[in-house]
Amino acid sequence: MLRSMFSAISGLRAHQVMMDVIGNNIANVNTVGFKSSRVSFQDILSQNFRGPVAPSGALDSINPAQIGLGVTVAGIDVIHTQGNLQSTGKLTDMAIQGDGFFVLANGTLQSYTRDGGFDVAVDGALVNPSSGLKVQGWTADSSGNVDTTAAVGNISIPIGQRTAAVPSSVSTIQGNLDAGAADGATASTTLTVYDSLGISHAVRLTFTKVAAATATNAWTWDATPDPADTSATIAAVGGTLNFTSTGLIDGTTPPTGTISLVLTNGADTPIDFDPAAGPPATLDFSKLTQFNGLSEPSAAANGSTSGSLVTFAVGNTGEITGVYSNGQTTRIGQIAMASFQNPAGLIRGGGNLFSSSSASGAAAIGSPGTGSRGLITTGSLEMSNVDLATQFTGMITAQRGFQANGRVITTSDEILQELVNLKR
User: Fold this and answer.
1) How many CA atoms lie within 13 A of 89 on its CB side?
2) Distance CA 257, CA 285 (A)
3) Alpha-carbon distance 118 to 102, whole Å?
4) Same domain, 25 and 100
5) How confident is the model at residue 225 (pLDDT cuts 50, 70, 90)?
6) Is residue 161 part of a domain?
7) Phi–psi pair at 160, nearest 5 degrees
8) Mean pLDDT in the chain?
9) What whole-number distance in Å separates Cα of residue 163 and Cα of residue 175?
10) What average pLDDT does range 310-322 have in this prediction?
11) pLDDT average, residue stretch 231-252
12) pLDDT over threshold 70, residue 144
């Protein structure tokens, strides 16, 4: 009789734990990145009344007779299924679609989370604003290259930081020169170039049709600086362009002439463009054509003035691209993501954080979208994966299980009372 009571008591304890887990799940139904848990039960050892007996003679085998001694909690498992994504429109909000965790650190200790509610701190670091932990990743070098094989570190987004000016080194001339134009006809366009200080200089390119008696399908070109630009002069300029009968630049007699822009404003000088030279100083006429129609040449050069970082964007593979006031875009960093052999073995640390354990294995850190790691969706957060219908059903089951075990205790007590009353 006492066995039934103690078995029922173990059932009360187990179902109370089940209710605790369900209550925690329901409490976190709106917690960003929360992963629900479930309880697994297992029976306790059994008492043997009779052991098993092997077949003997005319008798067959006899099964053992055992009575169980209750139930215990076998484990509390974390269910790492995908939660629904909620759009927030906030640039620094990020959600993971697929497996993986964001990596956060306080300087020495790393933690892992699915909560991507980040923000840019006063020092430019990308952080979790509720804990102050810094998002981990890799910082790009001055050329925008990221070494994902290096150790991860704090990601910085230096809003307002200025970039160096990029001087022009390559210019491209394209468009059309009218094949039906009269001898001596002209067409012009403006080429804007930048010096090492980021100051722009306008160069006027003028094309003149060569008389047919002198050369067929040929144009000369000349360059003059903007008259208002007192800091720039042209030292070497002009040349000849030869076209084939199909309207393209003649490769057998390539364009001639150079532009050498001499500066007196303290910038590096001269800025040279030569159609016969390779990078970094070229003057490319290969896209210029000569067909019948309007003369519409155009010119463009690389380079830019100095600019400041005004905003940024995060791609689905975690690359952070800075957008500058001069129109430039440069990769400034890369967000890291961790994956685990057994995510269910992670230890909850509060604050939507997990830490690794011997059961989860060490974190495998890499770029989003590589290996088993998921992709990042910006402007969204991952909601809790708690299913209220499942939790309320489990609540009913736990309540009825607790109630039934309580009834076992009262029934056992009544039977004991009957035994006591036999004395009367």
Assistant:
1) 0
2) 11
3) 11
4) no
5) very high
6) no
7) 95, -15
8) 92
9) 32
10) 95
11) 92
12) yes
pLDDT tens per residue, range 125-138 = 999 999 999 999 99
Among 249, 280, 301, identify where a domain stops.
301
Listed in sequence order, the residues at least 6 apart from 149 whose beta carbon sits closer than 8 Å to its beta carbon are: none
**3-state SS track over the chain:** CHHHHHHHHHHHHHHHHHHHHHHHHHHCCCCCCCCCEEEEEEECCEEEEECCECCECCECCECCEEEECCEEEEEEEECCCCCCEEECCCCCEEEEECECEEEEECCCCEEEECCCECEECCCCEEECCCCCCEEEEEECCCCCCCCCCCCCEECECCCCCECCCECCCEEEEEEEEECCCCCCCEEEEEEEEECCCCCEEEEEEEEEECCCCCCCCEEEEEEEECCCCCCEEEEECCEEEEECCCCEECCCCCCCCCEEEEECCCCCCCEEECCCCCCCCEEEEEEEEEECCCCCCEEEECCECCCEEEEEEECCCCEEEEEECCCCEEEEEEECEEECCCHHHCEEEECCEEECCCCCCCCEEECCCCCCECEEEECEEECCCCCHHHHHHHHHHHHHHHHHHHHHHHHHHHHHHHHHHCCC
pLDDT given at position 59? 85
If asked whether residues 296 and 188 sit together in one domain, one would say yes
Euclidean distance between CA atoms 222 and 204, whole angstroms: 8
Given a contact cutoff of 8 angstroms between Cβ atoms, the answer to whether 297 and 187 are in contact is: yes
Please indicate, yes or no, if residue 137 is contained in any of the structural domains. Answer: yes
CATH of the domain at 214: 2.60.98.20
Q: Which domain holds residue 27?
A: 2-80+385-421
149-191, pLDDT tens digit by residue?
999 999 999 999 888 898 998 999 999 999 999 999 999 999 9
Distance separating alpha carbons of residues 118 and 94, to the nearest angstrom: 7
CA distance 141 to 135: 18
Query: What total number of domains does the chain contain?
Result: 3
Residue 328 lies in a domain: no
With contact defined as beta carbons under 8 Å apart, do 258 and 239 qualify? yes
Is 159 a member of any domain?
no
